[in-house]
Structures are given as structure tokens and as C-alpha cells.
Amino acid sequence: MRTLEIRHLRCFLAIAEEGSVTRAAERLRLTQPAVSRTLAALEDALGVRLVDRSTHHLALTAHGRVFRDRASAAVTAFEAALDAGRGSPRPLRVGHPWSAAGPYTTPLLRRWRAAHPSVPLELLRIDDRTAGLTRGLVDAAFLRGPVTAPGLETAVLYEEGQVAAVASDSALAGRSGLALADLADRTIALNTVSGVTTLDLWPSAIRPTSTVTVANTDDWLAAIAADRAVGVSATATADIHPHAGVAYVPLTDAPRLPVTLAWPAGVTDPRVRDLLDLAHEVVAEP
């Protein structure tokens, strides 16, 4: 039997979350053939097919769906075992794909430092949909929109509105508000790696037909500033990611986005519970 390593599990989890070998390779910073070989080696060692490659879109088999949850738990346990072997308390690692906890980020970090001076909190921007959570890179993560990744527990902290992002010299930039219909004939910048906006945001009758896909917030902003496209994001993006070439205009008819704290299911790290309690306190303050 081929020896398996933690990298095999991380690779499979990336494929499962991305639904694509190509996108998983981009996320892991590996070549597509390397990811395909790693998946094949894992399937060979287990003696079962984990991924159905016969469909147009990659899908997990029944074995793959079961193994996904177990692999996620194994990666989390592996990280916990490493932490237990370290001599000094390690930082609490909190990921986010973009905008963290919005306006509550700074007060939350300050309150954590005052309440837990011996446990540093590291806020890490990681460009994937769970901000590194399913890969075992962080202990918890601030996420926006629906959280569909398996093996995670979530708690909604608050909801926020959405804004349109347009080039600062665009005719739309001077408007006090915009509707989704105002963007329907524009090219839409979609962050397919860590963003939550999809074309399904628009009703089918006015759904945009032209898109530009990007892999992170920086490229998203660059495309909009160059007037190649317009974008949609949470209101926090306007404060956390200001850009001289981008104007943010409130969207009057876009649904509000839930902002959640997520963590691996079954994890009993008391620091995550402390963070959740503190986040609720900060959000509730006037």
C-alpha cells in the first residue's frame, strides 16, 4: 500500500471544495498534473474512487463525500497534535478572504489583546472560500454569504448590505445609489476563488452576460479601476479596501450578507469559543 501523507488529504480537500482540479492547483500553487497525480495516488491507496471525472463538472462519489468529512477532521487533528507539542502557547489563527469583521475588526482585536494578553491573535487573509479553514491553516475564520463547505460549524455575527464598485471616473460613480438593473449591461468582475458574488445575484431576466474572472481582491480592484468591469461586494469592502480608482455606491435592492464566524466541527478549542463570545459582545455594543 502506498504511504499517504497529510499533503494527500490537503490536496483532496482543495479539490472537493473547489470542484475543479484546475482551481485546486491554483489554490495550492501546484501544477494541474501534480494535483491529478496526488489524487490518483490517494485513490489508489484507498482502493476506491473519490471523484467522478465522467461528468462535465467534477463531483465527489459517495465514498468521496464520506472521506471528505473524515479528511477534514484528520487535518484538524494533525494541526492540533502539532500545537500540543509546542512549548509555548501558539497564536489563535483567524482567517478571512477579505474585509475580516468589517467595522468590528479593530475593536475586536483590541478587546482580545486586553482580555487574552498571553494568546496573540493572528488575522490572516487567505484567498479561498473558507480562508484556509478546511485546509487546517487557521483555527477559525470570518466568512460572508452562505457557508456550504462540509465539516464546519458557524455562528452569524451580523448582516451587512452590498455595494457596487465602479471606476471612479464612471458615470455611475456619482450616483447616490444603484439597482442591480443598472449593472445588468456591464461586464461583471467575479472573484471565483474567495468571493461570494455570482451572476445568480441578478434575476434571470436582467442577468449580465459578460464577466471577468479574478482570483483575489487585489485583482478584482485592478479590473474595476481600469474600467474593464464593475463589481459587487459587501459594504465593509469600501472601508477595508479603499482604492483611488474605485468608487463604491450603495446597492438598493441587493440582499444583505450574513457575516459569520466559522470553525471546524467538533473542535473544542476554548479560545474559539472565547473569540465567538467576544465577537458577539463587540457587535452588540452601540
From TrEMBL:
Q: Which organism is it from?
A: Streptomyces uncialis
Q: Which residues form the HTH lysR-type domain?
A: 4-61
Show the taxonomic lineage. Answer: Bacteria, Bacillati, Actinomycetota, Actinomycetes, Kitasatosporales
Specify the domain of life of the species encoding this protein. Answer: Bacteria
Query: How is this protein named in the record?
Result: LysR family transcriptional regulator
Q: Which Pfam families match?
A: HTH_1, LysR_substrate
- Sequence similarity: Belongs to the LysR transcriptional regulatory family.
Keywords of this entry: DNA-binding, Transcription, Transcription regulation
Q: Which residues form the signal peptide?
A: none
A molecular function (GO) held by this record is: DNA-binding transcription factor activity
Gene Ontology cellular component terms for the protein in this record? protein-DNA complex
